[in-house]
């Protein structure tokens, strides 16, 4: 080998550089700006409010400099999000555009429903659009674009991009970016839907109030910028959204059963409201109710109810652990229609390369989490004084003490005080009484009765001393197994 | 201390003697013989077929001598139970008395029901007697007398003795004796209902065929012999049984609503059949279906269905572990009416001294069994090659190999080949590619992203070598926690 000595040092990954890669700030990415008012929509504005020039220069240094400027700015004057809510400033806390889109519109719709009861056809239209919109968010925005859990062909992507826009949750580009940030920074200040700030905050509060610019974060979305569908949808988002969300249902209902107004309210506004609330639940409900079979250090949880509400995104503890698995539910009896749609689409050639984590990796996670729970249960139980903390008695001391204390018995070189247990012994008082002052190792371990785990555990809680040179063995149970094995071997030999 | 040297040896419990105590053969016990035909009933005959003289002499030596004689006898000629069933000897295999009591009678009843449909009053009578009989077996025969799980006052004991006799399952003395033997010798030849011999055998087969005398076993029942109610019931068993099982319902039905024949069939025979089958399920169903939360080395199991059928004796895995606990079900949502009856009887002063095992002991059992399951799951998973089985590479070797093999990366002093994972990386290809040929310990452990359990597990499966002097740490996860703790401490210090 001709490697010079100096080369013997392995180069470490440059963390700053790698962070820039992870943030997508290390190189010139395709610039995607939404047209007109669209750029202002649902937070997309802040995303595109940089010039192409800035984006190109956006090295890690630039980023650090900007961070510094921000810090200085808010050292002098606190950002609105850091000020308490008062009757003078409350309107400044609020993101009014979002407020209109996720509260105002539904409110208008709710009032309208009062004047306009739905027709049967319109209800069906609303339900169909609800399902298409919801699945476009879960199978499209979430599993396909945010997590690359599989690859999709153009027709399917177009479908998802259109009906996903109709759900009025922002463009793919904006949605997937925040979502990647959420995964990378779960339960930190940088997590846009930070569940630690309460159920309400993670459900809608985060988008209705102004975020603290101190906690800005970025994720690399250059793969999305390479996708013309993502680019196109983002550029013309406002147009596509309005058409898909409101105009299309109005036209359909007008054309086929002459119910334009109903189509607008139920197929449009009301449908949008329901999809929004349903998918918002992935950020709230999925971080609040349920079990944590894979990891309990963070908030994500698995719950059947969340799955029902969110087209199958309810096994969120699993999802945060295995984000690029195209499945959310693993078991056949768990509800995950999104998984089924993806699977079926692959069968008809509309998608391919469905990613799954290995059964091995999944089971490992389960085993580790269960182990953690067991260990914490175990730590709360009384397993008897450890042998090293017990006094050591000579045999003569044992005889002496046995005279005044009428409950001492030796098992496995350990002295136990079974006084209080004599009357409780399931095998009767006589047997225990007959063992007092004696060594009952063999009798206890199978000579008379091969005691259960429970009996060995109880016994351990009664330890009082160790016998000197007594071959003490804290694991009385292993001793019993040895004894029984020997007996079985002897029986086998004698046959 | 004046103990002479010779006394320094601790006396061991004499196993032979203790076994005699456990078998109740060490001393003269009160002799209880059933009157007349009663002595022959349901196996009680063999129990009393010893003279008072013999019982008194029944030391362990006597027992051993008898065992020897038995062995010699059946060495020359095989016992019927050891011979195959043929068309010549099948009738010798069968215990005809029991056959009549648990099969013949019900068959007769079944035919009779065809000719005599029940009246409403008679059905109610049958159900009430069924409940009284069933509870007398579970709360009385089983938990009170067999297991001393609590103490009962005379009125309650009389009730249990009467209605228990009416269930036609033998006397308390006989029943509790076999049951104690069953617990002590579960799943061995000496277990009267040995579940290893099949569902049918443990359900009824054991009582319908002749048992092998080679496998006789005994349990101490001197406490029962001290109970006048047990003695009285055993002495007059046949009389009490016939009256309680058949005559009483006939009289009631005749006297109050003039349906003697119905009372006999439904309140008598049919009721007996149902109670018998229900309680037999404790020996069959409870050893066959369900889960084993406390111990899986033996057959007892917990199942809701068994509980429903047996007045709450369905948590049999728990019961074998904690036999003298007056409860069978621990959780409020588990079905155990027997427990409730015992509890209520204690509230009205009919019983006292209800025994329970400590929560600690119960949880210990659960923890141990879960640990066992986890360990076996863990053993079936791939946790990566143990460090000691990996080749050791110099750093120069790592450089060399990194040239041809394009997937090597060092994390925690261990070389991993991540080639096949690059395309699967949920955090994108770029980050992993940027780490190839480098040490990514810090980046992987929180410098860029604090990877989940799952990621650490996956990583371990990709191990290929250990770096010489590289401070290898198989537990990459502990390393990550250290790193994060340090970061948190630094952040706290800088605030
Ligand atoms: C001194 C501490 C003892 C403890 C804590 C203890 C505990 C227990 C427990 C919990 C049971 C219920 C069944 C089981 O869990 O395995 C049991 C049953 C039994 N024990 Fe012990 N025991 C002790 C001593 C002894 C000794 C010294 C003997 C014999 C010389 C003995 C003989 C039996 C027998 C024969 C049974 C069977 C009862 C049955 O299941 O019907 N035990 N014991
Ligand atoms: C070479 C072995 C690697 C494996 C087996 C691995 C595995 C994983 C896995 C399973 C995830 C999903 C989330 C999680 O489970 O924590 C993940 C996410 C991530 N990884 Fe890695 N990784 C590796 C290397 C790296 C390296 C070297 C970096 C950085 C330089 C990195 C950066 C990230 C980032 C930023 C995410 C966040 C993605 C998200 O949740 O949105 N990984 N990785
Ligand atoms: Fe989440
Ligand atoms: Fe996600
Ligand atoms: Fe049993
Ligand atoms: Fe029992």
From TrEMBL, chains A, B:
<keyword id="KW-0813">Transport</keyword>
<dbReference type="GO" id="GO:0005789">
    <property type="term" value="C:endoplasmic reticulum membrane"/>
</dbReference>
<dbReference type="Pfam" id="PF00487">
    <property type="entry name" value="FA_desaturase"/>
</dbReference>
<keyword id="KW-0812">Transmembrane</keyword>
<dbReference type="InterPro" id="IPR001199">
    <property type="entry name" value="Cyt_B5-like_heme/steroid-bd"/>
</dbReference>
<comment type="function">
    <text>Stearoyl-CoA desaturase that utilizes O(2) and electrons from reduced cytochrome b5 to introduce the first double bond into saturated fatty acyl-CoA substrates.</text>
</comment>
<keyword id="KW-0560">Oxidoreductase</keyword>
<protein>
    <recommendedName>
        <fullName>Acyl-CoA desaturase</fullName>
        <ecNumber>1.14.19.1</ecNumber>
    </recommendedName>
</protein>
<dbReference type="GO" id="GO:0020037">
    <property type="term" value="F:heme binding"/>
</dbReference>
<dbReference type="InterPro" id="IPR015876">
    <property type="entry name" value="Acyl-CoA_DS"/>
</dbReference>
<keyword id="KW-1133">Transmembrane helix</keyword>
<dbReference type="InterPro" id="IPR036400">
    <property type="entry name" value="Cyt_B5-like_heme/steroid_sf"/>
</dbReference>
<feature type="transmembrane region" description="Helical">
    <location>
        <begin position="237"/>
        <end position="257"/>
    </location>
</feature>
<feature type="transmembrane region" description="Helical">
    <location>
        <begin position="263"/>
        <end position="291"/>
    </location>
</feature>
<feature type="domain" description="Cytochrome b5 heme-binding">
    <location>
        <begin position="390"/>
        <end position="468"/>
    </location>
</feature>
<keyword id="KW-0249">Electron transport</keyword>
<feature type="transmembrane region" description="Helical">
    <location>
        <begin position="94"/>
        <end position="115"/>
    </location>
</feature>
<dbReference type="InterPro" id="IPR005804">
    <property type="entry name" value="FA_desaturase_dom"/>
</dbReference>
<keyword id="KW-0275">Fatty acid biosynthesis</keyword>
<keyword id="KW-0349">Heme</keyword>
<dbReference type="Pfam" id="PF00173">
    <property type="entry name" value="Cyt-b5"/>
</dbReference>
<feature type="transmembrane region" description="Helical">
    <location>
        <begin position="122"/>
        <end position="144"/>
    </location>
</feature>
<keyword id="KW-0276">Fatty acid metabolism</keyword>
<dbReference type="InterPro" id="IPR001522">
    <property type="entry name" value="FADS-1_CS"/>
</dbReference>
<keyword id="KW-0472">Membrane</keyword>
<comment type="similarity">
    <text>Belongs to the fatty acid desaturase type 1 family.</text>
</comment>
<dbReference type="GO" id="GO:0005506">
    <property type="term" value="F:iron ion binding"/>
</dbReference>
<keyword id="KW-0408">Iron</keyword>
<dbReference type="GO" id="GO:0000001">
    <property type="term" value="P:mitochondrion inheritance"/>
</dbReference>
<keyword id="KW-0443">Lipid metabolism</keyword>
<keyword id="KW-0479">Metal-binding</keyword>
<dbReference type="InterPro" id="IPR009160">
    <property type="entry name" value="Acyl-CoA_deSatase_haem/ster-bd"/>
</dbReference>
<dbReference type="GO" id="GO:0009055">
    <property type="term" value="F:electron transfer activity"/>
</dbReference>
<dbReference type="GO" id="GO:0004768">
    <property type="term" value="F:stearoyl-CoA 9-desaturase activity"/>
</dbReference>
<dbReference type="InterPro" id="IPR018506">
    <property type="entry name" value="Cyt_B5_heme-BS"/>
</dbReference>
<keyword id="KW-0444">Lipid biosynthesis</keyword>
<dbReference type="GO" id="GO:0006636">
    <property type="term" value="P:unsaturated fatty acid biosynthetic process"/>
</dbReference>
């Amino acid at each position: 080998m001709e490697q010079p000595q100096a080369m013997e040092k392995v180069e470490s990954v440059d963390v700053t550089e790698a962070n820039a890669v992870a943030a997508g700030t290390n190189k010139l990415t395709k610039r995607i700006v939404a047209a007109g008012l669209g750029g202002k929509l649902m937070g997309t504005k802040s995303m595109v409010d940089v010039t192409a020039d800035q984006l190109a220069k956006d090295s890690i240094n630039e980023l650090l400099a900007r961070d510094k400027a921000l810090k200085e700015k808010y050292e002098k004057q606190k950002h609105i999000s850091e000020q308490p809510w008062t009757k003078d400033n409350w309107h400044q806390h609020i993101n009014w555009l979002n407020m209109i889109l996720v509260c105002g519109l539904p409110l208008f719709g709710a009032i309208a429903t009062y004047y306009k009861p739905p027709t049967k056809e319109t209800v069906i239209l609303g339900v169909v659009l609800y399902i298409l919109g919801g699945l476009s968010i879960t199978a499209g925005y979430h599993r396909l674009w945010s997590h690359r859990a599989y690859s999709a062909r153009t027709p399917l992507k177009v479908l998802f991009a259109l009906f996903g826009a109709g759900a009025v949750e922002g463009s793919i580009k904006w949605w997937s970016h925040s979502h990647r940030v959420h995964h990378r920074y779960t339960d930190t200040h940088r997590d846009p839907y930070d569940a630690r700030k309460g159920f309400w905050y993670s459900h809608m509060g985060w988008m209705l109030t102004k975020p603290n610019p101190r906690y800005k974060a970025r994720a690399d979305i250059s793969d999305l910028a390479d996708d013309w569908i993502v680019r196109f949808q983002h550029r013309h988002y406002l147009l596509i959204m309005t058409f898909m969300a409101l105009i299309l249902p109005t036209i359909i209902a007008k054309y086929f059963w002459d119910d334009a107004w109903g189509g607008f309210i139920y197929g449009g506004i009301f449908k949008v409201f329901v999809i929004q609330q349903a998918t918002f639940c992935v950020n709230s409900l999925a971080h609040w109710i349920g079990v944590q079979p894979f990891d309990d250090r963070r908030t994500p949880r698995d719950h059947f109810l969340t799955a029902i509400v969110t087209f199958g995104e309810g096994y969120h503890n699993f999802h945060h652990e295995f984000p690029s698995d195209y499945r959310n539910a693993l078991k056949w009896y768990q509800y995950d229609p999104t998984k089924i749609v993806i699977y079926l689409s692959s069968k008809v050639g509309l998608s391919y390369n469905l990613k799954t984590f290995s059964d091995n990796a999944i089971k490992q996670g389960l085993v580790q989490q269960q182990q953690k729970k067991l260990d914490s249960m175990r730590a709360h139980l009384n397993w008897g004084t450890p042998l090293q903390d017990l006094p050591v008695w000579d045999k003569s001391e044992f005889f002496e003490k046995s005279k005044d204390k009428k409950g001492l018995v030796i098992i496995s070189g350990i002295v136990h005080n079974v006084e209080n247990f004599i009357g409780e012994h399931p095998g009767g008082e006589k047997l225990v009484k007959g063992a007092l002052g004696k060594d009952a190792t063999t009798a206890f371990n199978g000579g008379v009765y091969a005691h259960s785990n429970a009996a060995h555990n109880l016994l351990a809680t009664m330890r009082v001393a160790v016998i000197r040179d007594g071959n003490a063995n804290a694991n009385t149970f292993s001793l019993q197994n040895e004894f029984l094995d020997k007996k079985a071997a002897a029986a086998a030999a004698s046959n």
